[in-house]
Specification:
single chain; about 130 residues; alpha+beta; Archease, Possible Chaperone, Chain: A, domain 1; 3-stranded antiparallel sheet; 8 strands; about 25% helix
Length: about 130
């Protein structure tokens, strides 16, 4: 990114939910090496109904929030649609002490140039992270 305090991630998958899961992995991979980490916990949460971009941002914001407040990071993500139009997310997690820091830690998800939608049968997203 032209601005040194930004990181841009992109993800794609055959489904909307799969693309959200891939975006979570991309976010985590921007600042930690999880290769030697193993899951030590799990957690579930719901994202309220919204448009696709709001759902994506809601999940990515939750990664940053839980890292800052609980000291945990997702190593694996499963996303499924909720009956009300939101998302149900399940993470396999580890503590931040179990991973090696390799980049700038994201502080927020920017809405600037947020892109998320279906293209040619697959789902794609692009998000800027403030670091």
């Amino acid at each position: 990114m032209p601005h040194t305090a930004d990181v841009r991630i992109e993800a794609w998958a055959p489904s909307r939910e799969g693309c959200v899961a891939e975006a979570v992995a991309a976010l985590v991979d921007t600042f930690v090496d999880t290769a030697s980490a193993t899951p030590t916990g799990s957690s579930d949460f719901r994202v309220p109904p919204g448009d696709d971009g709001d759902l994506l941002v809601g999940v990515l914001d939750e990664v940053i929030f839980r890292m800052e407040t609980e000291g945990v990071l997702p190593l694996g993500t499963e996303v499924r649609p909720a009956g009300d139009g939101g998302l149900v997310v399940r993470w396999r997690t580890t503590g931040t002490e179990a991973v090696e820091l390799v980049g700038a830690v994201p502080k927020a998800v920017s809405l600037h140039e947020l892109r998320f939608g279906a293209a040619s049968g697959d789902w794609e997203c692009a998000v800027t992270l403030d670091v």
